[in-house]
Structures are given as structure tokens and as C-alpha cells.
Write a structure and sequence with these properties.
The protein contains 14 helices and 23 strands. With 517 residues, it is of the alpha/beta class.
């Protein structure tokens, strides 16, 4: 069993009070990781004083080259990283690719964005404006890197992509990163940082790694620092009210719970291409990474007239899903990440069942390739509520596992929209219809409550990765229950790490600051 060390102040450090990391399919101990006793104030200070200036000295194009080198380093170790994702994350190889390749793709995408920004150290925000009758008195908004550190606290479900999607944007913006992966699945994130450190891809202090508990890290935040958190809404709320965060007006971005919905339009008749596209996406989101995706479909909204057919078709497809040790050939779905997560999923299924009935699966399953009683397994579970039922738990409680509920609606966009929005804010919901009027009306109803709306159509079925895939050029986040944050979105994501400032004065002086002739 190996010991995972943190990479702080430019060197590897071992902390105390370690937690044991296991293979969630077999419960075999794999590693230990702890952070007790580490000087986290010094770690933050090193990132600010050493990593920050080194990054800010570079132009956006030069920082883009760093991201490109990071992507290349991960790609060179792809097979090794995939194996770690299978062992420590309980991922099938397909699920592991979703995580690791997503990390590499996001780094490469932001490298391309950085190259397009050019050899500049600040960005203009909009056009300049004349502030008097004379054009000499001028105003211009610009954006510059903040001089603190970006603290990233990531969830257990995407240890590679979660690290990369936050770090890519922060590093391109010119802010050093202190990344803290969830301990239970930290082996993948640890190896990524180890690879980058071995190859000396980044300047010292640009990327630090904390494995184990978060300790007092957040107690040392300053007014130039930022925090990006992915996890439960309860933890996100606690971060927002930390005395240090409030006192220093620390920027906080939270990506939290989300009861994402998929709405089948009345025009998508059974057997049509749009209908089949809908079923395919629901099935994938229920089973990919054992349903442990913040963007997974949790509520399946279908017209009452076809509810029975949808239920039967989904059950038929779910019955073909093989659950077991993801290292074995033919296994389509692995375990959930931890014993506590398994407990939460089982309790959540019982809670949702109070609103409806179980139509497929149960909390217990018999996984293949695993000794009896071992591993954190739950099979895919489908529930159904009666038409017109209030189903308050279905619309308020997210079960973070392979669980979804069929919710019939009368057929119009009004009721469908009202049902979806009972979720009080989501990361993404999807509409499967070829009816432009239905889609347009439903988009207007859903848009205030979501960060992204996926329009499922037969015209994009062959090229779309589905609503569960977060694309770096589109925003990731959502209002209300989803945390109220926003990440990625191409160049938009940079604004979290940059300070917008208004320059007011002689136009020639401002033009020189902007590097214009």
C-alpha cells in the first residue's frame, strides 16, 4: 500500500492522520493519504509569492503553451491513468476515458483559447468610451490577473476532469492553483500532479496538491484569493459563510446538487429517431459512472399517453446492463465510490419510493466478478410516480447514483416546465422534440432555472455526446440548488480569476497601456 503525499511549497510532503483508499469494487486497500500537520498557510503563501508572479510574467499565449504541455503529458500517460481510474474510482474503462480524456480535451481547448488571446498580459472588456465632448477623455474596462491563489476543492466522481477543468482556466488567467481532490479517489489526481512535477511542465508554485483533509486551508484565504468548490450544497453554503471568506470578500464559486430532467416532447412518438435518442441518453446517464455525475438525468418527464411505453422500453434496456467489477470484460457499470455513498444511495431509493413505486431494480444487486458481500454496488433503479402526483421528494432529493424517476405530464410545455422547475435550479435539463413551438416555449420556462439546456433532436443524434457531457466552450453551473456558480464557457470562465478595472484618463495613455500603437 502506497502513501500519497501532498505537493506544497514546491516539494512533496507527507501528512498525518491518514485515511485508507480502497478499490470500491473489491474493497482492497490501495493507498493512504493524510494532511494533518501540514503548514497550509505557508503553502498558500508560496503559491501567491512564487507561482503567481511566474504566471503573470507570461502572456496569455505563453500560458496557453503550458496548458498544451500539460495535455501532452497526460496523453503520454493515458493508459496508466485509465488503469488508476478503474482501480481507485470503480470506473469501467469507458467511464475512465470519459474522465481522463475529458481532462486532456479541456486543457487542449483552453490552450487554443489562450493562443487566440495572443501575447498580451491584460484583456480589454468591451469597447472604449468617450467621457467628454473631446475624445481625449477616455474610458476603457480591462481585466487583469488577481494576485492571490485559486483554491480548488473537487468532488470524488471526476478526479482527473475536475482538476483539469478548474486548473486550465485559472492557470490561463494567470492565477496559481492549490487543488484539493476528494480523498477517496485521490490516486488519479495525485498521479497527474506527480507526472506534471516530474516533467517540470509548470513554474514552481503554479500548481500545488493537497491530499487528505482540507484542514485549516480556507482559514488563510485573503482578499485576492478565490475558491471554486464542487460538492454538496450544504458544504458549499458553509464555505460561503466562513468568517475569513466573509471578512475578505473572497470570491466563491459553487457547483452543487442538481435534479436534472429530460423532457420528451409530445411529438416524439415511440419508434421515432428522436424517441430512441431520448431513451439512449437516459440509459447512458443512469449507468455511466454508476450515475455519479452532477449532470446525470434524475427525472424523466414524459407525456402521459406514452408513459407506459417509456417505462417498458427503459426497463428492457436496463435489464441488459451488467453490473460488476469494472476490470472484467463485459461489465457495463461498476460500483459507487465509497461505503458511505452506497448507504446514501440505498436510503435515497427508499425515500423516493415514498412518492411512487419501484419499476426496476433494487438497492441490492449481485455483481459479477466480485466475492459475495464485497464492493459498493447498487444496480440501476427506475421509479415511477402517478400522473398529477405532487411527488415532493422526487423534486427535492438527488440520489447520486444509478437512479431515475419517470414523471408523466399532461403534454403541454406549461406543465412540463412547471414540473422541471420544481427542482429549484439545475445544471442542465434536456428537451427531446422536433416541434419548434413546444421547444421554444419550454426553453423560455426552463432558462431562468438552468445553466444549460440541451436540445435533443434527430438532427444531432449522431454527433452529440448527450446532456451529461460538460463541454469546455459552454458554461457549467446553475442557479439555486445547483450552487449559483458558473465555470468554463470558453473565455467567459476567465472572468472569475481576473479583476475588471476601469481605466479613466487621456486616450493616448490608455492606448499605450493596452499596447496599441
Amino acid at each position: 500500500m502506497i502513501t500519497l503525499r501532498s505537493h506544497l511549497q514546491g516539494r512533496w510532503m507527507e501528512g498525518g492522520s491518514p485515511q485508507v483508499l480502497v478499490n470500491p469494487a473489491t474493497e482492497e486497500p490501495l493507498a493512504r493519504a493524510g494532511a494533518a500537520g501540514l503548514d497550509l498557510a505557508a503553502a498558500l503563501d508560496f503559491a501567491r509569492r512564487t507561482g503567481g508572479p511566474a504566471l503573470r510574467e507570461l502572456t496569455f499565449a505563453q500560458r496557453a503553451a503550458l496548458l498544451e504541455a500539460m495535455a501532452g503529458a497526460l496523453q503520454a500517460h493515458r493508459d496508466e491513468l485509465l488503469d488508476l481510474a478503474v482501480r481507485n474510482g470503480g470506473n469501467t474503462r469507458s467511464d475512465a476515458k470519459f474522465d481522463v480524456d475529458g481532462a486532456t480535451f479541456t486543457l487542449a481547448t483552453y490552450a487554443e483559447i489562450g493562443r487566440s488571446l495572443g501575447d498580451v498580459r491584460l484583456l480589454t472588456d468591451g469597447e472604449g468610451v468617450s467621457l467628454a465632448r473631446s475624445p481625449r477623455f477616455h474610458g476603457q474596462h480591462v481585466m487583469v490577473p488577481r494576485q492571490g491563489a485559486a483554491v480548488h476543492v473537487n468532488a470524488y466522481n471526476f478526479p482527473a476532469w475536475g482538476l483539469a477543468e478548474k486548473a486550465a482556466v485559472a492557470l490561463l488567467a494567470g492565477m496559481p492553483v492549490v487543488t484539493k481532490p476528494a480523498t477517496s479517489s485521490a490516486m488519479l489526481a495525485h498521479r497527474i500532479v506527480e507526472i506534471l512535477a516530474e516533467k517540470q511542465v509548470l513554474p514552481p508554485g503554479a500548481l500545488s496538491l493537497l491530499v487528505g483533509g482540507v484542514g485549516d486551508l480556507l482559514d488563510h484565504l485573503g482578499p485576492q484569493d478565490v475558491v471554486a468548490f464542487t460538492g454538496s450544497s450544504d458544504t458549499g453554503a458553509l464555505i460561503r459563510v466562513l468568517p475569513r471568506v466573509v471578512r475578505n470578500s473572497v470570491r466563491v464559486n459553487v457547483e452543487a446538487d442538481s435534479l436534472n430532467a429530460a423532457v420528451l416532447g409530445p411529438d416524439a412518438e415511440p419508434g421515432s429517431e428522436t424517441y430512441d435518442f431520448f431513451l439512449k441518453d437516459v440509459l447512458r446517464d443512469m449507468t455511466q459512472k454508476a450515475g455519479q455525475k452532477c449532470t446525470a438525468i434524475r427525472r424523466v418527464m414524459v407525456p402521459r399517453a406514452v408513459a407506459d411505453r417509456v417505462r417498458e422500453d427503459l426497463v428492457d434496456r436496463l435489464q441488459s446492463v451488467t453490473v460488476g467489477n469494472p476490470a472484467q470484460e463485459g461489465v457495463r457499470m461498476g460500483p459507487v465510490a465509497t461505503a458511505s455513498q452506497l448507504k446514501d444511495v440505498r436510503e435515497g431509493i427508499d425515500l423516493l419510493a415514498r412518492d411512487g413505486r419501484l419499476v426496476h431494480g433494487r438497492a441490492e444487486t449481485r455483481p459479477v466478478g466480485v466475492e459475495p458481500g464485497r464492493g459498493f454496488f447498487v444496480g440501476p433503479v427506475l421509479l415511477e410516480v402517478e400522473p398529477g402526483a405532487d411527488a415532493p421528494r422526487v423534486h427535492s432529493h438527488e440520489v447520486f447514483g444509478p437512479v431515475a424517476t419517470v414523471v408523466p405530464y399532461a403534454g403541454g410545455p406549461g406543465e412540463a416546465g412547471e414540473l422541471v422547475c420544481r427542482g429549484q435550479g439545475g445544471l442542465v435539463s434536456s428537451i427531446y422534440s422536433e416541434d419548434a413551438a413546444f421547444t421554444s416555449d419550454l426553453v423560455m420556462a426552463l432558462a431562468p432555472f438552468h445553466g444549460r439546456i440541451f436540445l435533443g433532436s434527430a438532427r444531432i443524434a449522431e454527433m452529440s455526446p448527450g446532456p451529461g457531457t460538460v463541454l469546455p466552450l459552454l458554461v457549467h453551473g446553475g442557479p439555486g440548488r445547483a450552487g449559483g456558480g458558473e465555470e468554463l464557457g470558453g473565455p467567459r470562465g476567465l472572468s472569475f480569476y481576473l479583476q475588471r478595472v476601469a481605466l479613466e484618463g487621456p486616450r493616448p495613455t490608455i492606448e499605450k497601456i493596452l499596447g496599441r500603437p
